[in-house]
Task: inverse folding
């Protein structure tokens, strides 16, 4: 989605040259979206990007990871 938006804005060469941090800073300062923040969940909802996992959030993901690590050691 971001590549397509960059192409529409004529930023193809800039897009390839930017680091992720630089691009994030630019978007945070210059782009206004009708979302309260730039969190992935909110952006995915805005751009209608479906979630592929049933995990509800970071805390649940961390709990699943810890359970996996704990059970894998035995």
Result:
């Amino acid at each position: 989605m971001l590549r397509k938006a960059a192409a529409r804005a004529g930023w193809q060469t800039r897009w390839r040259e930017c680091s992720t941090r630089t691009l994030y800073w630019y978007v945070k300062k210059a782009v206004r979206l009708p979302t309260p923040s730039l969190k992935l969940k909110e952006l995915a909802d805005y751009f209608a990007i479906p979630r592929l996992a049933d995990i509800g959030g970071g805390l649940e993901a961390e709990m699943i990871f810890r359970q996996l690590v704990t059970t894998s050691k035995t």
Summary: The mean pLDDT is 79. Helices lie at 2-8, 12-17, 20-30, 40-46, 58-72.
